[in-house]
Amino acid sequence: xxxxxxxxxxxxxxxxxxxxxxxxxxxxxxxxxxxxxxxxxxxxxxxxxxxxxxxxxxxxxxxxxxxxxxxxxxxxxxxxxxxxxxxxxxxxxxxxxxxxxxxxxxxxxxxxxxxxxxxxxxxxxxxxxxxxxxxxxxxxxxxxxxxxxxxxxxxxxxxxxxxxxxxxxxxxxxxxxxxxxxxxxxxxxxxxxxxxxxxxxxxxxxxxxxxxxxxxxxxxxxxxxxxxxxxxxxxxxxxxxxxxxxxxxxxxxxxxxxxxxxxxxxxxxxxxxxxxxxxxxxxxxxxxxxxxxxxxxxxxxxxxxxxxxxxxxxxxxxxxxxxxxxxxxxxxxxxxxxxxxxxxxxxxxxxxxxxxxxxxxxxxxxxxxxxxxxxxxxxxxxxxxxxxxxxxxxxxxxxxxxxxxxxxxxxxxxxxxxxxxxxxxxxxxxxxxxxxxxxxxxxxxxxxxxxxxxxxxxxxxxxxxxxxxxxxxxxxxxxxxx
Length: 482
What we know:
By secondary structure, the chain is of the alpha+beta class. It has twelve helices and 19 strands. The strands form four sheets. Strands 1-7-8-13-14-11-10-9 form an eight-stranded mixed beta sheet, covered by helices on one side. Strands 2, 3, 4, 5, 6 and 12 form a six-stranded antiparallel beta sheet that branches. A three-stranded antiparallel beta sheet has the order 15-18-19.
């Protein structure tokens, strides 16, 4: 593939119709499918790009499809346009045994009749093609493979699919790069590309800088009409070799009875570095009573909905509500806060601890923590995820994560969480010049908002974990939580 290759492609008519019955069965089983519990009633094609012609030994299609679903289970007549998903569909006459887990199905009609289709990211050749397209800044149909010209991508790096993903899919190339492919796609600037690019311009070392990225311009899309902005489909970043994610590291240290406060303090410093760099790189705003009233209203609405959904919350509702009222009262008295771009979904699992350098490094010594996955909460609208917010929202998410780690131990160790929470806030203050605990009303409100979200999530998906956020709710509902 030559430098800056441009290739016009056409997809065979009837492609999506031939895949429809297979995708209806396969898509809802994927971990990243957001519409679970409601049957898929059909698909609309947003874009289809032929990356490898199916006349060869291996065919490869890139699809953006919108899944239509009924509003409620059992009401197939009430349909609504669902989420748009990015799919990479491989085509072979038959799958080798190593690709059996990737099977989507056997096509019985249409242009691919008689062929076997599968999730192509399990296969080496399609994964290699994506990296080569990024390396050469290819343009194939409506797909644009872009990269930072200052950063080199060596050819021939061996790909391997990561299996621990949840809402997206990642491929590692030779322990040098990691390509994160977004699954739920919306038009517009995705913060998972926007914020790391801004941090790279600021020279912030705590976030791996984007090396390349994939976007789509579905100009010929019949449904929906062409968006004003492109779709961001994936981001290639340096792979942090030998790193352990913060959640795994915390659980490991807990199991060994090891102190984690030095790591928590270092993570607090890293978080503050990222917040400080984001405040320099992107606009900040001042929140007064009008803006805070909107935030409090949203928190209160989420609480009321959660109380209806999870009866176990009812004994604590008044105490939780009073925390939101206290924040509104503080704003009414003239309190103001600074809002800026933030991570938006910060927890231990979004942090990577690289191996310490030197023969005998001290725990928590500098340059070891990285923050990743700036997409925010995927279920929230993109415009909301890109809004400036108080930095304490990220802090609250991390404090809740320490609590989760401590209560997942057997037996639970709430004192461990208290020490980590204090160390994290102290580390944050060392770099930011302000301690989140000096604004207890705002911090408590955001912690409650996060804990209420956790209660609803656990009640729906992991009932055995429900006692974890309920313990936090019990503490935070007190007039003087500690």
